[in-house]
Amino acid sequence: MSYDIENANQPSRDELNRPNFRLGLDFVKWGFWLFIFGIVIGFGVLAHYLLGSKYRTGDAFVNNISLWWGSPLLFSSGFIQIGGLGMAVLGFIYLKTARLFPNFHVEEKDKVALSLTLIGLIALFLTGFIGYFIVDAMYPGFYYTPIDEGKNLWLILQGISCLLYVAGLVLGFGNIHDTICDYYKKNKVEPGEKYRR
After folding, report:
1. Which of the 8 DSSP states describes residue 55?
2. pTM for the complete prediction?
3. pLDDT per residue over 93-103, tens digit each?
4. Got the DSSP string for 8-31?
5. 97 neighbors 180 (Cβ within 8 angstroms)
6. Which of 78, 84, 87 is nearest to 173 (CA)?
7. Residues 8-25: pLDDT tens digits?
8. Terminal Cα-to-Cα distance of the chain (whole angstroms)
9. How far apart are CA 103 and CA 184, in angstroms?
10. Contacts 24+ apart (CB under 8 A), 177-182
11. What's the CA gap between 70 and 30, in Å, rounded?
């Protein structure tokens, strides 16, 4: 099956220069880069499985292995991968919304949404991956014994990072939601009706 590039429904140069398209492309670009970054740091999890822990595991760790899955680096690498894909999906939704709804305009909160999602995922790497080694230096063996002070500090920092990311996604979807609702109100279309062109 061949694809006709000449007649494809591609965005024009004018569309690509509009802020809502650029923002959508930024979400897609950063999302894919963070997804790839999550895969790369996932090799830290593999190295941990191959080399093992430098600490003996305590009874509390062994009894709760399903929560931890054996590696302290798994949560941050997995969440960064999923978060990157979430950013890319939001970017594609921005691009589609920009094409379908001419009244869709980028607001300051959309730029803040991009910043929050980026900061959240980068902070998750810093707190969950690098932060593990820093907290482990402060509370040796905190993850395996576990030492509650170290474990709680480490988990709270990761939780704050995840909340930043989720806040960015919610903020980003807000303007898209408002644009679609405005379209329905202006055109007196009920959300349950079939889409008409």
Report:
1. S
2. 0.78
3. 998 888 888 77
4. S-PPPHHHHHSHHHHHHHHHHHHH
5. yes
6. 87
7. 566 666 666 677 888 999
8. 28
9. 12
10. 179/97, 179/101, 179/103, 179/104, 180/97, 180/101, 182/103
11. 29
